[in-house]
Amino acid sequence: MPEILTVNECKEEVLSMAWSTLLILFSSYFDNKRIIPEPSVTGGVFIEVPSGIAAKIHLLNALTLTGTTQSRLAKEMNIRPQEVHRFVSLSHPTKIDTIEKALKALGYHLILDAVR
By the 8 A CB rule, do 70 and 88 touch? Predict the structure, then answer.
């Protein structure tokens, strides 16, 4: 993500600062209804995103792409809007099954892959 720039002599601290900044940037993208792009394989340092966060990114991108509000998603899933608000939060842990159900309600399928 071109918006991220961290400087420090210690690689571990740079990666830690980059991860913190990345979470803030993800939240900012969603607050502004911007799609988070797929990771680039060229240039810079690759920061691994945990699978739960990656799944939420797909969900939040799907909400943005479909123009679906959290309230509408709650109605589609037959749950309270507060539950949707909680599970779309990047800082709240959410079961992968819940994210999968939300994606399904939006017409998407979550596909997991294990590579070596």
Answer: yes
- 88 and 60 in contact (C-beta within 8 Å)? yes
In a domain, 115, yes or no: no
Report pLDDT digits (tens) over 93-115: 999 999 999 999 999 999 988 88
Tokens standing for residue 38: 């797929």
**Residue 76 belongs to what domain range?**
11-105
pLDDT, position 4: 53
Number of compact structural domains in the chain:
1
Longest dimension (CA), the chain: 50
Q: Does the predicted TM-score (pTM) go above 0.90?
A: no
